Amino acid sequence: MTKTKKGPVFTEIALEIFKLGGLLVNEGDLMGSPYGITSARWKIMGAIVRAGKPLTVPQIAKTMGLTRQAVQRLVDVMYADGVLAFQTNPEHKRAKLIKLSEVGEEIYGKLDKKQVDWAQTCSIHLTKQELDTTLSVLKKMADMFDH
Amino acid sequence: MTKTKKGPVFTEIALEIFKLGGLLVNEGDLMGSPYGITSARWKIMGAIVRAGKPLTVPQIAKTMGLTRQAVQRLVDVMYADGVLAFQTNPEHKRAKLIKLSEVGEEIYGKLDKKQVDWAQTCSIHLTKQELDTTLSVLKKMADMFDH
DNA sequence: ATAACATTGGTAATATGTTGTCATTATGAC
DNA sequence: GTCATAATGACAACATATTACCAATGTTAT
């Protein structure tokens, strides 16, 4: 009896993550559309805000699990759109630090307020324990593949 | 006291799902690369196999949570590559039924074997209960946004 | 200091996915 | 049967992401 029933469940989880990824992008796009912000751009802003300090492009990429090229592209268009600002990096001449512009800060504030309400509403029918377990499992999964 | 601590955890879960989505695509691409199959194409094949019968493009899209256009594009190239085959639909002249070709069946068989081992290995450090709870939460989340 | 190596930015090609639009074919109400 | 409506396929424009490559800049070992 080497078989377990865990493998198939793991597979179902993977498929559900694929589906949910798309659905969550939709949700984010909807919430951000009044401000011209897409899910991808919102996540860039979030990575910077959550870090509590300006970040370089590779640092943002690392945080989000994306390639630096993908982040670079977004950062460039978001700078052009005026929601991000650059700051010279005292420790590195080439790698500029990225922060939110004043406009970006304002937009992010409104988005974040919306998002907090959204998350609270979404979690009404889920228990704290269920959510904690889920987050713990997802983190373990990410660690498993993160290298 | 209207505040709960569930919202922030829900938000963390959403961010983890974004990251895991990318990591899982990588895993699938790696496993499929010996057969020229990417994650996206593998999932199309999986949707058909798991249905147990040929499906139309919109049916595949519905199953996977994608738009029919995205699926149509993949189905067309996979037909050109010879891994999918068409079958006239007795109940609908316009919507052809899609099934795996013989080559597709053979490739899928090998992929599936690999994937079963992979899922079992991945779930070693997770309990059945953790996995069940996680799947349940993810499904509830998907239902929440599925309309 | 210099040489080897790693990091960063930039660019291009490709894959995946969305929205929007149009024409065609099915379906259903009457 | 006819007409309004829905579903399907086809196509285009765009957004997001990857890999691959090159040039420029930093870092480290010697």
UniProtKB/TrEMBL annotation, chains A, B:
- Classification via PROSITE patterns: HTH_MARR_2 (PS50995)
Q: Entry's SUPFAM superfamilies? A: Winged helix' DNA-binding domain
Pfam families documented for this protein: MarR_2
Location of the HTH marR-type domain: 10-143
InterPro entries, A to Z: HTH_MarR-typ, MarR/SlyA-like, WH-like_DNA-bd_sf, WH_DNA-bd_sf
Instruction: Report the superkingdom from the record.
Output: Bacteria
**Record's protein name:** MarR family transcriptional regulator
Q: Which organism is it from?
A: Zooshikella harenae
